[in-house]
Please model this.
Amino acid sequence: MIIIMKTGASQKQIEDVEKYLQGLGFNTHPIYGEVKTVVGAVGDKRLAKTENIIHMEGVENIVPIMSPYKLVGRELIHENSIVDAGGVPIGGKELVVMAGPCAVEDEEQLMEVAEKIKETGAKILRGGAFKPRTSPYSFQGLEEEGLKLLAKVGKATGLKIVTEVVDTRDVELVSQYVDILQVGARSMQNFKLLSECGKSDKPVLLKRGLSATIEEWLMAAEYILSAGNPNVILCERGIRTFETATRNTLDINAIPVAKELTHLPIIVDPSHATGNWRWVDAVSKASIAAGADGLMIEVHPDPSHAASDGQQSLKPEKFAQLMKALKPIAQAVDREI
Amino acid sequence: MIIIMKTGASQKQIEDVEKYLQGLGFNTHPIYGEVKTVVGAVGDKRLAKTENIIHMEGVENIVPIMSPYKLVGRELIHENSIVDAGGVPIGGKELVVMAGPCAVEDEEQLMEVAEKIKETGAKILRGGAFKPRTSPYSFQGLEEEGLKLLAKVGKATGLKIVTEVVDTRDVELVSQYVDILQVGARSMQNFKLLSECGKSDKPVLLKRGLSATIEEWLMAAEYILSAGNPNVILCERGIRTFETATRNTLDINAIPVAKELTHLPIIVDPSHATGNWRWVDAVSKASIAAGADGLMIEVHPDPSHAASDGQQSLKPEKFAQLMKALKPIAQAVDREI
Amino acid sequence: MIIIMKTGASQKQIEDVEKYLQGLGFNTHPIYGEVKTVVGAVGDKRLAKTENIIHMEGVENIVPIMSPYKLVGRELIHENSIVDAGGVPIGGKELVVMAGPCAVEDEEQLMEVAEKIKETGAKILRGGAFKPRTSPYSFQGLEEEGLKLLAKVGKATGLKIVTEVVDTRDVELVSQYVDILQVGARSMQNFKLLSECGKSDKPVLLKRGLSATIEEWLMAAEYILSAGNPNVILCERGIRTFETATRNTLDINAIPVAKELTHLPIIVDPSHATGNWRWVDAVSKASIAAGADGLMIEVHPDPSHAASDGQQSLKPEKFAQLMKALKPIAQAVDREI
Amino acid sequence: MIIIMKTGASQKQIEDVEKYLQGLGFNTHPIYGEVKTVVGAVGDKRLAKTENIIHMEGVENIVPIMSPYKLVGRELIHENSIVDAGGVPIGGKELVVMAGPCAVEDEEQLMEVAEKIKETGAKILRGGAFKPRTSPYSFQGLEEEGLKLLAKVGKATGLKIVTEVVDTRDVELVSQYVDILQVGARSMQNFKLLSECGKSDKPVLLKRGLSATIEEWLMAAEYILSAGNPNVILCERGIRTFETATRNTLDINAIPVAKELTHLPIIVDPSHATGNWRWVDAVSKASIAAGADGLMIEVHPDPSHAASDGQQSLKPEKFAQLMKALKPIAQAVDREI
Model:
């Protein structure tokens, strides 16, 4: 950590900062510049309460040197982690595709989609049972009934199941039915929910928050890992920007950046990242080319009658075409699908 | 609702849209333009599942005409609502100021701050017992112990208490100790938490999410009202933008806009909106001048040793000066403080 | 165009709006809803001064139906346009790669880079002679001397030349030396510069502004086309968002969206879009997979001594590897490189 | 400047960085941490080419210590600067209000507005003669004819004149007619235009760019000062964010932040910052309360027939009411109006 002192900071102020740092267990190294002085603080004290130094007399700014996360970073674990989702490895050479309807509506719909996506090579079925909706008047999901349908269809088809959990009170319940717990974008900083998921033995798919920096996203993953669950899959699903032509802006840069910073696998949700099925094809290809470990795509047999997010769902035929088109891209970046 | 058809949409496609809308109970009125056709759908069907029309052949876009909220809007309730927080009215002619430390640390600290802010005319004591922190390694609050201290100090001083609740499981517990439940920015779209707060008999202070539009914020309030609790206080606390000089960007525009759209009171949190105590003074004055119904300000007797957010906390003397300086501004906009 | 009237708008107010619209040459079609009335205005009057209707009594909002551009849209020209840049077609089956240093520094440097990029299959040499720099104290470019070097190296190698023009006074001068005029992100809404480039007989590479919507970007292109120059190449170079891990956020969604809205070719600048050479590889591949017509990449023989933007420049060897790696991606999306 | 080395950087890499820095004239001070090493570089070398160090082996990041500007900062000039605009001081105790139509339309319109705003105490007349418009089909201004009208009305009323200049070729021409040159938001990083304005003897009103950080805005001002013109007035006019309820988001925080960083006066344009006349009143009051040195407000006698931006223009009566309402706010912050 580096403390930058204000122009004209007094020797006393500099020494007070040094004393404070030493009290926290740091060694200090002041560098006296022509105009400003900086104080280097040596010691890996990630837990030390240093943010308030900004309030000391003569202090202009604090510059952290160490990343704020430990378990998700590449310092301790250098190799890419492979997360096992009910027998399906995520993060290895083989790409993983999760597909299915935004919301679980009924058994017939779910079974139809499940069978169709299975034919294409998708390994994991997605479907919402608890839906976080912007409006209290929108369909909120079938809840436990939906979980049961997911489990049933999963068993029948051999597909693994991922579904969102939105309430700390439901983590245990959802864990009983599914293979992967999904923490949605709006819950990325629901720290109690992260901690509960950290106590589960199921892998956690952690979506990036609408306005979360990559660092905040990794810190959210750190919550889960530090609570005891090492199996986290990151999911980029678009961020909120000024652009209104699309629902969100897919942050494609985040893929190589996250790959550099963390050993955790990262997949992309092109459905939410664009908000329109017409653009899912292009950005799915882009995501794989950029190095993503997989995709999560909304597929619905009859999007114009979907209970939620129909406008961004692919029909099964379009999805099958996309899966085929992804093969040569995967090969080009030395992956399989 | 208006459906905009694509250039070249066929008569059949237009009629299909009309049929679909009529099936939902709307009357339809197509307008055939030189290049494009639009279909007007008449009927107040806020609950109808219309979003998927975007997926129908020939449809380009959907334009809602009605706001998506009912209870928080000005259509049903024209007058400003006044929320009663344990006897303190919020939203009336008298401005309300909430102040206190970011986190409750110990009884002495809390009592010291409480007495000092009371002298200045503040009516409500703030202090976090459950702290949502970006890092799992940061201080997470004293939890129920903190609630007890808050209640004790509240009773001793006569100040009303506001504190954040972050977990659905804690709503009942927190409601027992405090006068106002706070839903934080990161929980603004924790819809289950909103629903739980909607069942409480305590008023709810609803902070705006970091990247929430004003409409989404009002929809979050609608969750609380529609669950049965009409006592919501909105709190603008800065939004996330590209500017890095400040922690957040205070959206001062949001005050007159929200006042126009909703009858609920709105206050401002200048501490989070700036992230630096040096700028709290200026934007507090600005908020009152813009028509806010009050302020929520972090005050700490020794900010450089605060357990959380010390850099944005005012010392009690600075806070007292600010309270004094706000008086003529309040008068200038026909308010009292 | 649709005019949405406020709840409770009077019949007189509705009729006034109709009269105003009729005065502009529109036919009007009011639709009386249960709560609100909307007025449809029929007639393609893109030039009509309708924005001020918002100021009329009883008006809540105006919804445009037609896109504001004509020449760049797909309504008049359905097929993709192919821009001829000194004999190199841009926008056809073959992808085009532009590469070179951020700034032209000296003949030796430029010749070295030019020869190396030519070997890899790049067809166009980029290099800044006029540099728009954030600081007045940074290197501003060799100006006309730089243009001469570019022309000389272009002639010697057969590479076509693209360089930025930043001043209306220089358009003619720059046009004499180069094959493509570049309008930089900071100039995207320098409308006088756009008009001057519209009078040139050279193609124009139009970078997207840091905070420009796709619609504004297309409107900037419309300026050039409407001034008489149909040869515009769009260049996505990242937009400004809250994310600080990267210099900009590459808006990969913009590729399929722009392809849908306009017939103009679109290329991507991964160097500015990421700001770090380490991430250029991944997002270059992503851009081609998403359907871009080409790339513009910064290449410098000795990035740590570059006069500008060294941190985002590839060394020639890395660039050669990337060019090779792009081949199978291009094939996968039915393109050549 | 501090260079942060990567975890595991070799002694050789550290020494290479030191040598490089020493070659630029810096003294170097390495601090060896438990995990990482940082290298402090002492010496005020704002002009040194240090950005490329990021490209050296083993380097993780560079942290500047000094602000990149000199002339606009508070290090050399501690007191607030007062800019003289044709006899009207800007930045002193007395607030200055600039008002008038978005675009100059005709003499009668301009004279009517001028007389009305003069009665209210406004000292400066605004009006666009060269209009930067998003669409090439929108009204682009009366150009020199508009300048002549402004000068005529200015002479007749005694009001000073401010108008925008958008082209380097017009700076001299515009300087002949007006008292203040305005550089618009879209031109804030038109560096050639800034340099031309820096050679003028007229003060320059520098609007903040739509997505400009405060630091970039100050660097734009530095261009003007470093070219010889010390008379710059900053104008906050809203930034671009995700919020769509308003045209822009007024960054009220920018007022105290800019006041801390620079000695230049700063005013606010509430018309563009909100985009809607209904909210101009509230944010004008807020701006004065926050410490702004003045306001620039659009006023039009018949907004629904304005040639440009009618939706955000106040009618003269509303403007007169606002001017009256600002008086007690100004007094409350020890200013006059």
Q: What stands out?
A: DSSP finds ten helices and 14 strands in chain D. Chain D touches chain A at residues 2, 4, 7, 29, 31-36, 38, 40, 42-44, 63, 65-66, 75, 211, 240-242, 244 (CB under 8 Å). The mean pLDDT of chain D is 93.
